[in-house]
Design a protein that fits this description.
Length: 279
């Protein structure tokens, strides 16, 4: 049975839709890829129960398997929480172990908080930045100098690009084929474009051509990588909570919160999810 959830929202018309298969035992890779292509969302999650609160989880875009997906993890964990209540779920992903704390309010919403794989960041190669900006339709003058362009990782690589204004973020109109080819060559899963409203409030957009999707309305893996980037560059304090507004420019507003774990390289990313039948 394929469930459909919108993650990082309490409104099924917002957030990032994900397919969820709660028991995928017996499914082959080819079958899972075919299901993901038929569902057509940026990712569908396939859960393999291992006993108790432990599961192996795999994620497929319509084009390929991905090692880790934040919004599909949140969607899957909320779906489990609706059935089993509050608790901690232990997931094995291809990017490493991911624990998810689920809080199910009586007759109320379910919130899931994932703990990402370790986050790290490094400066992007200047030639790669130039090529990415050309594909994205931006120039170096469009960048916010307070945020150097980096490749950040919390399970997957994301090019992190800070823009100088909200208007520039809203005006995104990129070359799908050119950016997709560059990202495939550099092993970037998304480009995390953002504008800083304040030191801890950000607006983001995430082109996702490697997955066959023009844009992701909510990207938990990118939120974790981005928060690690902010921490490593001392742009936030260790006890700050980062709020990310995403999806508004594509009509699917999403809300993500993220915070670094003290004395740990991992990041906690929180959100709700809601089940729907169709879009």
């Amino acid at each position: 049975m394929i469930l459909r959830y919108a993650a990082f929202t309490a409104d099924p018309s917002g957030g990032n839709p994900a397919g969820v298969v709660l028991d995928a035992a017996g499914h082959s890779d080819a079958e899972m890829l075919a299901i993901a292509a038929e569902v057509g969302y940026s990712e569908t999650a396939f859960l393999f129960p291992e006993g108790g609160d432990r599961y192996t989880i795999r994620y497929f875009s319509p084009l390929a398997e991905v090692a880790f997906c934040g919004h599909a993890t949140i969607a899957t964990s909320v779906a489990l929480g609706e059935r089993t209540g509050s608790g901690t779920i232990h997931l094995t992903t291809k990017a490493g172990p991911v624990d998810v704390d689920v809080v199910a309010e009586p007759n109320g919403p379910v919130t899931a908080t994932l703990t990402s794989p370790p986050a790290a960041t490094r400066p992007a190669d200047p030639a790669d930045v130039e090529a990415a900006l050309q594909a994205l339709g931006y120039t170096p003058d469009d960048l916010d100098p307070a945020f150097p362009v980096h490749v950040a990782n919390a399970g997957m690589n994301h090019l992190v690009v800070g823009l100088a204004s909200r208007e520039l973020l809203a005006a995104l109109d990129y070359d799908f084929e050119a950016l997709g080819a560059l990202m495939a060559a550099r092993d970037w899963i998304t480009v995390h474009l953002f504008w800083a409203e304040s030191p801890v409030i950000f607006h983001a957009r995430n082109p996702f051509p490697p997955g066959g999707v023009v844009e992701d309305p909510a990207t938990g893996a990118a939120a974790a990588a981005f928060t690690g980037y902010l921490r490593d560059l001392a742009l936030i304090k260790e006890d700050d909570v980062v709020t990310i507004h995403q999806g508004a420019d594509m009509g699917r507003p999403s809300l993500l919160t993220a915070a670094p774990l003290p004395d740990d390289q991992r990041i906690r990313v929180s959100g709700r999810a809601v089940r729907f039948t169709e879009i």
